[in-house]
């Protein structure tokens, strides 16, 4: 029951009035019910509201999540694309540097011959120059891609500043060409004689600044100032390159270092460039904690200043005498001439093995090693090299080994030679890497894989010479051989004479050959090998002997072996072109493309014709080489040959 009571006011005896009623009849009951119902409604509304609001609030998060997912997918795609770009560049660099090796190497060899004169020398000089320019561009592109992918690393060494300055000036001074430009070198005599840093990269920066100064100056002055300040463990170097050239417009200044572009293209129409150099220079200098600045007045000239950090090595300054002698040097000598005049040591006691799957590369290497008088054996695969070292019939003084070869690459071949063969000879023979792959192949990697040295292709004659002197030349043995020198000189004379005799016969024979071997341009072939028919004939013999196994492989092509087929037919293309068998080269190339594109129908339809043509050529080469005239010449040469092919 529900009760209500009230004390009666002014009641002296304490009256209370109370009313009682059954609870069901009380209005509280209905109020309670109303309360219950309304709070139920509120609760439901509240829940609905919360659900609604939370949905609304979550919407942007959902969107973000989807966007995030998209971004992650995009990121993966970008990473894959970047990876593909690096792979592409690595492959391209290999593919481009290999022919560059032939262009630069062979033209350099020919320029070293006194008989090459007049217009031919001029044209050859241009071919060489163009080759070097192209190689520099390839190298710049590779460097940029390395920097962008974060794979660029500085390699600090202790280097000698006077030699550095001398080399850099000698290399750049030739850009003056015929222009009325005075070059001035200012060197602080307090420069330390040695510092620690990446001299090759600094040289690259200097070459860029100096070559630009010469390139963009028609007349007047180009000046290079070199100074330094010691700062504890560091030495801050400052290079200032100043010219009186065409100058740069103020609005172009910012673009110089960031845009991969040439500025002021209207007035620079005739000057070639890629716009890569300064971008690279800035990135490299920044990696050395430094910066490059430029001041310029349009039409009057420009001043580029590079300041960067090297590590302190010695207090000994270069001194007044060295500074003065550097500054007074007349840098007029053409670098390439000095290269051609490189004096090679004669080391007829030495034997080397060159391993490369590309015929032309073998020929370049052999040509470059010819003047040392050593025995140069060539093989075309890692496996053959391993077999020769295992048999040990010839004790080689060194192996020059290519990196990328089908079947067994240079690194694997070196590993087997070092680890599996196990003889002292195999463990100790110097192995020198020669590779066109500038991205994958860095020196440290090769040195850690059992190689002693690394020469990149295109082969630099100077570096090859240094490697030969260091790893192959044996001064002790030479002392013992001093008595035999007379004999060696006699041999040289004989060599020269029979070389002349060989050449006399060349033209006649080359013409005869052109008539007798269809599908083969023997005249160009002989020219390709520096006019030395002996070498060309040997290459032909090696082609005739080594191509049939390739053909057997090609014959067995199936849909599933197309990838392998592409590699083999690529090889056939290369060797055929190197002997000037253009028709076969072109057929092989078409088939290589088809195989790479998985076009089995094309391969099936054209493979037989390629095999037939190649077999016919091999047969003709056989006939040609067994001809009396040729073998007579070969016999004549055999007594004096210092090279041979395995
Ligand atoms: P490249 O010379 O190969 O075009 P660089 O990156 O070295 O590339 O230079 C970029 C541009 O800067 C050049 O194309 C040229 O327009 C300008 N430049 C560089 N150095 C000079 C200079 N010393 N005088 C005038 N202009 C210059």
Q: Give the N-terminus to C-terminus distance in angstroms.
A: 123 Å
Based on Cα principal axes, name the global outline. Answer: extended
> What is the CA-atom radius of gyration, in angstroms?
39 Å
Strand proportion, as a percent range, falls in 5-15%
What characterizes the major β-sheet? 7 strands, mixed
Helix segment tally: 21
Bound molecules: adenosine-5'-diphosphate
Mean pLDDT across every amino acid position: 81
Short description:
This protein is 57% helix and 14% strand. By secondary structure, the chain is α/β, with parallel strands linked by helices. Helix 12 links the parallel strand 13 (431-435) and strand 14.
Provide an overview of this structure:
The chain has 646 residues and is an alpha/beta fold. It is built from 21 helices and 14 strands. The strands form three sheets. Strands 3, 4, 5, 6, 7, 8 and 9 form a seven-stranded mixed beta sheet that branches. A five-stranded parallel beta sheet has the order 11-10-12-13-14. The protein has a two-stranded antiparallel sheet with strand order 1-2. Strand 10 (351-355), helix 8 (359-370) and strand 11 form a beta-alpha-beta unit. The longest helix is centred in the first third of the chain and has 85 residues, at 27-111. The protein is extended, with a radius of gyration of 39 Å. The protein binds adenosine-5'-diphosphate. Adenosine-5'-diphosphate binds next to helix 4 and helix 5.
